[in-house]
Amino acid sequence: MLLSSIPQQQQQQPRPLTSPYSYQHHHIIHSNTINTSDTNNTHSRHQSDSSSSNTSASSSPPTKYNKRTLQQYRQEHLDNMSITVEEYEDVLNAEVWIEVNKLRDYARHGISREVRGEVWLYLLGIQEADRSKEISTQKQKLQEYELIDKDPNEMTKRVRGEISRYLRKTNIESSRNMPRLFEDVISAYCNHNHRVEYYPAMVNLCAPFIYSVKRECDAFLCFEKMINILDDHFSSRGINESVASFMTLFRTCIPDLYSYFEEEEVDIKEWAASALQFVLSKELSLENTMRLWDTYFAVPDWIELHPYFCLAVLRHLKENLEELEQSEIRTMLMRLPPLDMDQVRKSSHCFFLCFPNDLSQKT
């Protein structure tokens, strides 16, 4: 492995900016606030218990996460400020030392496309805060990346096919040679990590870094970091166990929708496995995915919070889903419409605080 540890970051839509690529504009679905009737009596008690304290932030959240994690995760929903490009640039242009903690605070409100890639490098620990080492570190990273084999092999045809399908689906224009960048980064990762087998979702996980990070070697390091985080998490806790825990949360928190899916014979486990394992990168639009990752990279232990966000997506689309039949439900879940990410995160925050974490451990 070429790299080190992970920080994180978060959201709130900044002002529109010019970008090296452009998205097709879609209608955004807005969510309702969480209706307490979606929950059973046991969890209504949890809500009333928390509301009886002096402030909502003082309610006792799951104890599994450290205090800093919870404070940061709550704070992102209390603030509604948006951060300008100039504010980011003030931090990024520091001559001696980059204030990474300030970048994390800013990132909770969303990151402008113009600076997102550079901010991610600091939040993921790819770039060091000490700028005195910047030139030597970048040179070393580039040299190490150039030594990695990127030549075509037996998997190249599969990679190219998946890249073509992804680019057609996303409808994104760019002046950069996207197919080559995708292919080089994914091939470099698989060739550098011989124990890892290529799988199609690598393209989805790679895309946010390809579109946001300017230098190819840095996009590779970010991609490698993301894959390693997911591998470490699911090697210690298998995907089947994670899906089972999520299903318990789903049945407890949104019982009406859970029952409706059972009536329609919708296999939500299939969706949950993909959503959890690949951080919704296959289901969300690219723009929504990058917005979500702004949030996640700003907070520690973000992967532990991810099931609550998946749950909030279902709650966000509840009324729409209950009007659909089985095949239509599956189609919507597999390719989610563009979402109001602020509203979804607010819902995920409520789920996170209102429902004790040990519920997800009961199957």
Automatic annotation (TrEMBL):
Residues 110-300 form the Rab-GAP TBC domain. Residues 1-20, 33-65 are annotated as: Disordered. Residues 33-42, 49-60 have a biased composition (Low complexity). One of its GO terms (molecular function) is GTPase activator activity. PROSITE patterns: TBC_RABGAP. Gene3D superfamilies: putative rabgap domain of human tbc1 domain family member 14 like domains, Ypt/Rab-GAP domain of gyp1p, domain 3. InterPro entries: Rab-GAP-TBC_dom (IPR000195), Rab-GAP_TBC_sf (IPR035969). It comes from the Eukaryota. This is Rab-GAP TBC domain-containing protein. It comes from Linnemannia hyalina.
